[in-house]
TrEMBL record:
UniProt KW keywords: Lipid metabolism, Methyltransferase, S-adenosyl-L-methionine, Transferase
Positions of the catalytic residues: C360
Enzyme Commission no: 2.1.1.79
Recorded superkingdom: Bacteria
A molecular function (GO) term: cyclopropane-fatty-acyl-phospholipid synthase activity
Domain (DUF7884) ranges: 15-87
Gene designation per UniProt: cmaA1
SUPFAM superfamilies from the UniProt entry: S-adenosyl-L-methionine-dependent methyltransferases
InterPro entries in the cross-refs: CFA/CMAS, CMAS, DUF7884, SAM-dependent_MTases_sf
Keyword Cell cycle recorded: no
Protein name, entry field: Cyclopropane mycolic acid synthase 1
Amino acid sequence: MSWNPLFDEFVNRMRSHAIPLRLQLWNGNHFDLSADPRVTITANSIGSLRHIIHPTLDNLGKAYVEGDIDVSGHVMDVVAVAARLAEANNSTERPTTRIADHTKELDKDSISYHYDVSNEFYAQWLDQEMVYSCAYFKTADDTLDAAQVQKLDHILAKLNLRPGQTLLDIGCGWGALIIRAARKYGVKALGVTLSQNQYDYAKARIEREGLSDVCEVRIQDYRDVSGQFDRITSVGMFEHVGLKNLQTYFKQVNKLLADGGVAMNHGITSTDPDSRSTPFGGGDFIDRYVFPNGELPHISLALREMASAGLEVLDVENLRRHYALTLEHWADRFDAAKERVLALAGEQRYRIWRIYLAGCAYGFRQDWIALHQILATKSGGPEMNKLPLTRDYMYRHP
């Protein structure tokens, strides 16, 4: 069968959904799916139509990354239109739960693939502290720089830090949290990462700011860390642990946490009760191009595995809306830095990250994914939980 009847049927079906999209063909013909299209998808060849007439987020994203299609319009509108196409296509396929064997070698390779693009690449669109995780907005008008510092303080305040305590940050990124903890709260902080670029940046910053006596960064797998720490943080890291390894991960947190200590796990969670991937193929695109082998647990699974590992959950906060705002800032800054990003990373990686950042912002807005901060201590009576009786202390920042 030729492509014409299939494409015509697709266009007629999609027009009934009034999606604000123009489909532009390689031969100059175009088809509007509504009276006021805000987005144009250009099919660069006949072969490109196979992605368009089977519109999952993975198919459309792959076609864009590989250059089979081009898109124009604000990137948030592009993602919203792609999601509407996928939904209108009546896909009833249930997302799957991806489970990988998270060896130390696999995790290091996955982290290196994602984070070791270049520090300058990330600096184009992150805040001045280089914080690559959900910010904390007191108002929607907060700048990204302000919201990221507020996030650091929000986490550190929840831990009820005291001068002289020891802090371990598992997956420390470019070091912003351990540096702030040492400077503002007077603790001795260790950060571990699997990214060479992050390690080099954090180490240089610690030395430059004269904090080497109270701050240290290492390239080290969380499974290889030893010692005892008064406080433990993990921010945007447990997404890389794997569903099968969650209890191992939380048992290691328990082992490293001193009696009476407090741990904070800040990470992306699935909103699917069975911890399945995001709908319409979005998770497949991320696994293919962005976060290989990432796995998101539902909050209920995370809490269950924490309890099984001997941790008592003290406080849970959902920052889903904050992450949507964060990603919208990143997407706008990424687009504003287009020429520099292209020079640093090339056309394909530019396309991957452009659609990824905007797509994640959309996913958080739609409640496809969430972000939970979970505060915990060791299970076992009053000597293990020495925090104040109310949450009031969390909002009295020093």
